[in-house]
Amino acid sequence: MVPACEPDEKLCHALDSVLSQAAPREAMQIAIVDDASTPGRVAQLVRSIDRIGRIDVISNDRRLGLSGNWNRAIALARGHLIHLLHQDDCVLPGFYASIERGFTASPEIGMAFCRSRIVDDLGRTMKRTSRLRWLPGVLENWLPTISERQRIQTPAAVVARSTYERVGGYRPDLCHALDWEMWVRIAARYRVWHEPRTLAIYRRHVANETTRLFATGAVWPDMTKAIRINAATLPVALRASGVAASVRWHTASAIRTAERQLAAGATAAAASTLDAIPDLLGLAAGTRLDSSTARRLAMLQARLGSDGPMRRAA
Fold this sequence. Notes:
Layout: E1 2-4, H1 10-19, E2 31-34, H2 41-49, E3 56-59, H3 65-76, E4 81-83, E5 90-91, H4 95-105, E6 111-119, E7 125-128, E8 137-138, H5 142-148, E9 157-160, H6 161-167, H7 178-187, E10 192-203, H8 209-216, H9 219-233, H10 236-263, H11 267-275, H12 277-281, H13 291-304, H14 309-313
Parallel strand pairs: 1-2, 2-3, 6-10
Antiparallel strand pairs: 4-9, 5-10, 6-7, 6-9, 8-10
């Protein structure tokens, strides 16, 4: 299922990566759920890659937004396993066969995912997600690991329909961390299978939603909200340590982000990022920054000439 909104030619690459390894129509649905794009835009792109009508195009009458369109795609999916593929991402040969083997070998799992390669606008590799096992299989102690921070790119994940039916859809009150919150929700109820090969590609570019949210400063309040939501999902025995670990990691990540923003001359964005840190730290009472992180924060604060809440955070 490919949720789409005003896609460009990258959609063709995404669809081609699916068609090249697709099972027959009776075994695998391929559909685009278009979130009220410019009329004719999606159909034209699909016709350029699919001459035989293998791909269904379903259009929303009105724009539902990110979570709304993802949830509609899930509702329209007919299969027992559901793969949400972003319009500008793709999968590599062997993705579907590998993931299907995971569900066959461990039918009790709620989801399966592989490693991802993260690329830029030109397809150049920026980094890869972590290898969590050397061999394919079910992850041990996965809940505390995934509740610390995001480790799964959405195009790398396949979720059982029954899992979504039990845990519910993506939250409309999250704009960036909605997939991470879902992975935590699933991990709290199901075992999860991991393929250590890199079989999915996530594109990070100036036009995608993640980049826009970082630029507007919306990411960090959203992350803070997600950590609070995740805390309620965690068992009581894991809650305090899990939240503290997540707060420490995301605070350090916010500082790294602010450093990059400042180096790029995005002063207002850097200030917005730093201003979110007190709320992050407030999620875990008594959590303090290590000396190195505190020094980096103080240096950034001094360069921006900020005061008030950031001084209390340091």
